[in-house]
Amino acid sequence: MTPASEPCQFGRDGALIGMYHGVAGHAPVGMLLCPPLGQMLLRTHRVYRQLASGLAARGIGVLRFDYHGTGDSAGDSLALDWQHCLADIRSAAAELRVRSGCATVVGFGAQLGGSLALAGAATTGFARLILWDPVLDGARHVAELDAGQEALRNDPLHYARPRGVEEAAGQWLGFPVSAQWRAQLAGWRAEPARVPTLILDSRPEPVAGGWSPLAEAGARVLAMPVSTDWSDLHRLEHAILAPDLLRMVGAALEPAA
Amino acid sequence: MMAERAFRFGRARHLVGIAGLPPVARGTVGVIVLNTGLMHRVGPFRLHVDLTRRLNALGYPTLRFDLSTMGDSGASAEAGSREEQIRADVRDAAALLAGHAGCTRFVLVGLCRGAQSAHIACSEAGVAGAVFLDGYIYRTFGFKLRHYLPRLLSPARWHGFLARKLRQAVEPEEVTFGSVYPPREQVRGELVDMLARGLRLCFVYSGGIGEQLNHPRQFRECYGRGVADHPALHMDLLDGTDHTYTLLCDRERLFGHVEGWLLERFPPTG
Q1: Beta bridge partners of B111
Q2: What CATH number does the domain containing A119 carry?
Q3: Alpha helices per DSSP H over chain A
Q4: pLDDT at res. A1
Q5: B38 shares its domain with B164
Q6: Which of A162, B84, B242, B246 would give a disulfide with B208, using CB separation of 3.0 to 4.6 Å?
Q7: Residue A197 above 60 pLDDT?
């Protein structure tokens, strides 16, 4: 039987909202699911839920949550801030440790959720990382988001007539973007973590630079059988599907659990 | 302290939702926001979050939640049709807001399939109104005239038309975003019934359903004067927007319409 999940509020003034997928009794290992950002947070909601339920059924305590200014958590979308996200990851990991009693916390994240899990690994005390198509080069990602927003503005399937530059300015695919957030993201350059790191690669096309510098530092890379198109403009409201995710994450955690 | 609270609730404790609970006088109408498509309660681009928080600031208690088997909600293990589940889920949502905010009357808000869920749940006692975003609308003779007549006079459009016909042998009769519409007469009859029971209804259509609706007067063509001109019914077409209000300026237009309608038809008590 799949253990029940419970909504929870934690952090300062209960401003962060999450779902804890518990196990009966003490969980030796916990996993924190760091969500991606923007519409990807919404698109991955279902696959995160499935992953959390599946891992909880294997005896792993799992917490998934929304950062300040995202999802259900407090804060305006414009308030998104890199350092705040890292602090939220620390709060969420503390909440997971209290709820599950686990001594070991594994960090998981898709796309920018993977980037944030990686950036916060040392201060959060993650014992290992599982990163699904993490963004390693922030400047390139910003350029892709800018291109996506420009394509959206001119997309005949969204708008009968192209929308004005001003109407689409300061946004990335449905979300407002502050100058600070833009600069923070553009300045992100991944550095290897000092803990075992697994990269799940589902990108449809290889990206220049591969998984550098993580792969050179010893990160293991596993190709997922089904690719994920994170940037398809016409699937902004479609759920991301990853039929092999639970199996691959579960296999990676077996020695730990 | 954050003004929103996360709840697991419902007849089988199977539903998950976030209630916005501003300090209000008893009797203020509560607003319940239903899932858009298969997306969880946050809504596309966080639309449901922004809308409910704005309504909280105006003094309305709100609940955005996941219907049975959607988002974070589970199944109730009851036998019954999807329609019966939706009605029972909305009853549970209303009971939650009644218990925590003292609401006795409720307005349902839904976009696309959420509007269809709201339409179903309007039969529930306590539902006093609904905001249907891209709710039911059917192509009419007028739609076809406005749609096809300009194309008849355009050689480029003829070329495109013939190319499309070669590619797809059969064009669907209705573009309904993947859902099956009930017969128009059934929907019209249900709207007549809602209005007769005193419900206040707000229809807002986006420019994103241009393949289904291409002029404000189509609403009257579709449902007749008895419905379209009823004083308790309001209809707007937000031309130029897309179906899920992706751009911030479009969301602002939408929020302005919904807030204005609520303040006029259901002013906060106290």
Answers
A1: B133
A2: 3.40.50.1820
A3: 39-43, 45-57, 82-100, 112-119, 121-124, 138-153, 165-168, 179-186, 245-253
A4: 45
A5: no
A6: B242
A7: yes
> Is the same domain home to B105 and B84?
yes
**pLDDT tens digits, B184-207:** 999 999 999 999 999 999 999 999
In chain B, the number of structural domains is 2
**B236: which residues sit within 8 A by CB, 6+ positions away?**
B202, B203, B204, B205, B216, B257
Name every chain B residue with its beta carbon within 8 A of the beta carbon of A71.
42, 46, 49
Q: How confident is the model over B154-161, as a mean pLDDT?
A: 71
Q: Tell me the residue range of the domain where A81 lies.
A: 5-137+191-252
| B127 and B145 inside one domain | no
Per-residue confidence (pLDDT) for residue B188, from 0 to 100: 97
- Summarised one tens digit per residue, pLDDT across range B26-76 is 778 999 999 998 899 999 999 999 999 999 999 999 999 999 999 999 999
Q: Is the pLDDT of residue B118 over 50?
A: yes
How many domains does chain A divide into?
Answer: 1
Residues of B in contact with A168 (CB under 8 A): 247
Q: Are residues B100 and B161 in the same domain?
A: no
ipTM of model over 0.85? yes
**Contact criterion met (CB < 8 Å) for B44 and A163:** no
Kindly list the strands in the beta sheet with B233-238, ordered across the sheet, starting from the edge strand earlier in the chain. Answer: B4-9, B15-20, B62-66, B30-33, B106-111, B127-133, B200-206, B233-238
Residue A129 and residue A195 in contact, taking contact as beta carbons nearer than 8 Å: yes
By C-alpha distance, the chain B residue nearest A161 is B240
pLDDT at B143: 85
What is the extent of the structural domain holding B245?
4-139+181-265
Decide which of B173, B197, B218 is a domain's last residue: B173
CB contact under 8 A, B4 and A171: no
Residue A146 lies in a domain: no
User: Hey, is A146 helix, strand or coil?
Assistant: helix
DSSP B10: S
Contacts of residue A70 in chain B, CB cutoff 8 Å?
46
Instruction: Tell me, yes or no, whether B11 and B145 share the same domain.
Output: no
| Structure tokens belonging to residue A172 | 């990335």
| Structure confidence by residue, pLDDT tens digits, A125-170 | 999 999 999 999 999 999 999 999 999 999 999 998 999 999 999 9
Contact at CB, A77 and B46, closer than 8 angstroms: yes
Residue B270: inside a domain: no
Task: Give the CATH number of the domain where residue B198 resides.
Answer: 3.40.50.1820
